[in-house]
UniProtKB/TrEMBL annotation:
Listed PANTHER family: ENDORIBONUCLEASE YBEY, CHLOROPLASTIC (PTHR46986)
Record-stated family: Belongs to the endoribonuclease YbeY family.
CDD domains: HAD_Pase
Protein name: Haloacid dehalogenase-like hydrolase family protein
Organism: Solanum stoloniferum
Length: 586
């Protein structure tokens, strides 16, 4: 429901654009905007001229229809700038006929704007073009109804429109985020609404121009209401336009039950006179309440399906997989998959940055139809894999590979055999191990990595093979109290230890990280870190979260990741990655 601002606001702090598309043939070729609003104006806004005749007709680019005026003022037709007598030109003298007086015309100056954060959605652009005709029609009908109205509650500061030379009105289409900010600034309410009226009329000034003000409509909320009420987005925006216009003309449903009834009646009357579909906003609100529907203005913004009303804030989103895109069952939920699809459909490139091999990432995302040519990962797409040790650029070509020191690999293998601690060595898309163990098998059964190959000796495992990293499996306590302390000291400066999972210890080349891998890929693509958002959860995501313009750590993540993140999101079991995309990427 709209809330009218009772005070006259200063110039609106809104950056808006006016459609560059040509006007409808019946629309006028000049446009004037309220001087108290900051809009980017086109060379020629829409002007509709209204004369004080008796009927409505279209003559060229002017709409003519009758209005009453207290003072019967009329504009006369301009005469010659100099006198020329008939006798001097040898014309036949005749009785001079009086020139017909031109009836006074009321100029309606209408400006339709789209807030700059709304993307170029074809439906919104088409609706904006339609409003160029609809708004003057609604103004005409509303003004006609004022002549004979006997409403007791209407503020009569605007009563005789015909006594003005022109009437100015701006309509701004925006999203929930923009209208929420207006609500916070002017009503101390931190939530979006469907429409706001911003009056600019100051009766005391007695200006020849009636500056009605601005009507701000959230097309995002309007779309939700249109879906619930079973009509089109254009129908809903027309309903909101009528409601906002009546507020500017002095109707206010909030002051009393009688005022609400009068405004409701006028809404229905105006919609019927215009042959527009739908019930008035007041009646629709009552119907929704009677049906037990929750107020639409309380719905969280930017949920599934509403990204169409927002421009992307980032060119790229880099996403971790385990613990981030994948839940605690190592599965990607339908909600998260849909968020990724919607982001890519809006022009954002989603890039995987994971400790997994590329083949494992493809297997997981293939299950939700996000792998392959039209997905977010494939053998021909960029990506950061195996903790940034294998990086693929344009067309999926390898641009960087970092291998673990063979001496460190040998020591790790010997430790595994001696202490019977299961080990897995990552070599591109192969997983190598020295003996069978259920925890090593879990890499394939749970984490979708390639099935481990058992190599009978350390020498055979290392011969002719590039190893990017090795990982040890143990209990959480075993990793914390035994493996990590031992290997942190043993490897010195020859390698680094990192953890993505609490029961797995990874040994990687020194000075490498997922974040350094992302930086290499960004340089290859010619993309600045300011253009990216990163989502992760683990200790191995720290550098990536620090590098990104916005780093989001999920609540299930490590304390180190959450300490460096700009935002802490929901958990991976609560679709935290999807929520982060909807909330922060647009």
């Amino acid at each position: 429901m709209l809330y009218r601002l009772s005070r006259t606001p200063p110039p609106l702090a809104m950056a808006a654009r006016v459609l560059p598309r040509p006007f409808h043939p019946t629309a006028a070729s000049a446009m004037i905007v309220s001087t108290n609003s900051h809009f980017i104006l086109p060379p020629s806004p829409t002007v509709v001229h209204i004369s004080f005749g008796k009927s409505l007709s279209i003559i060229g680019r002017k709409f003519h229809y009758g209005l009453n005026c207290k003072e019967d003022r009329r504009w006369s037709v301009a005469g010659w700038s100099g006198k020329v007598f008939a006798s001097q030109r040898e014309y036949r003298k005749s009785r001079k006929r009086p020139l017909k007086k031109k009836e006074k015309e009321l100029e309606l100056s209408v400006n339709i704007c789209i807030e700059e954060q709304l993307p170029d959605d074809p439906e919104i652009v088409d609706i904006s073009e339609m409003l160029r005709l609809n708004v003057p029609m609604a103004m005409k009908s509303a003004f006609d109804n004022l002549k004979d109205s006997d409403y007791q509650t209407r503020d009569r500061a605007i009563n005789d429109v015909g006594c003005f030379e022109s009437v100015e009105l701006s309509v701004l289409l925006c999203n929930d985020e923009f209208i929420r900010e207006l609500n916070k600034d002017w009503r101390d309410v931190d939530s979006p609404t469907d429409v706001l009226s911003m009056s600019q009329h100051i009766p005391e000034l007695e200006l020849p121009i009636l500056m009605l003000g601005d009507i701000v409509i959230s097309v995002e909320t309007a779309a939700r209401q249109a879906e619930e009420r079973g009509h089109s987005l254009l129908d809903e925006i027309r309903i909101l336009l009528v409601h906002g216009l009546l507020h500017l003309l002095g109707f206010d449903h909030e002051i009393s039950d009688e005022a609400e009834a009068e405004m409701e009646k006028e809404e229905e009357l105006l919609l019927k006179s215009l042959w527009w579909k739908g019930k008035g906003l007041i009646q629709s609100a009552y119907d929704a309440e009677a049906a037990g529907s929750s107020p639409l203005e309380n719905i969280d913004r930017k949920k599934e399906g509403s990204l169409r009303f927002y421009k992307p804030k980032f060119s790229y989103i880099f996403c971790d997989m385990d613990g981030t895109l994948l839940n605690s069952k190592s599965q990607i939920s339908s909600a998260t998959a849909e968020a990724l699809r919607e982001a890519t459909s809006r022009g954002v490139k989603v890039v995987i940055a994971t400790g997994k091999t590329r083949s494992a990432a493809i297997t997981v995302l293939k299950s939700v139809c996000l792998a392959g040519k039209d997905g977010i990962v494939s053998e021909v797409s960029p990506g950061v894999f195996v903790q940034g040790l294998l990086i693929y650029g344009r067309q999926g070509r390898e641009i960087s590979r970092t291998n673990l020191d063979p001496v460190v690999c040998r020591e790790a293998c010997l430790y595994s055999l001696e202490h019977k601690v299961p080990l897995a060595a990552f070599s591109e898309d192969r997983i190598l191990t020295l003996f069978h163990h259920p925890l090593v098998d879990s890499l394939h059964s749970i984490y979708n990595e390639p099935k481990a190959e058992i190599i009978p000796s350390v020498e055979q495992l290392l011969t002719g093979t590039d190893i990017q990293k090795v990982i040890f499996f143990d209990t959480v306590e075993g990793v914390r109290s035994t493996l990590r302390p031992y290997w942190t000291e043993a490897i010195g400066d020859n390698a680094s230890v990192v953890q993505a999972q609490p029961d797995i210890l990874e040994i990687v080349p020194p000075g490498t990280s997922k974040g350094s891998g992302v930086k290499i890929l960004l340089d290859h693509l010619g993309v600045s870190p300011k253009e990216i958002m990163a989502i992760g959860d683990g200790e191995n995501d720290v550098e990536m979260l620090e590098l990104a313009s916005l780093g989001v750590a999920l609540s299930n993540g490590s304390e180190k990741a959450k300490a460096v993140a700009d935002v802490i999101g929901a958990s991976n079991d609560d679709n935290g990655a999807a929520d982060a995309i909807y909330r922060y990427a647009f």
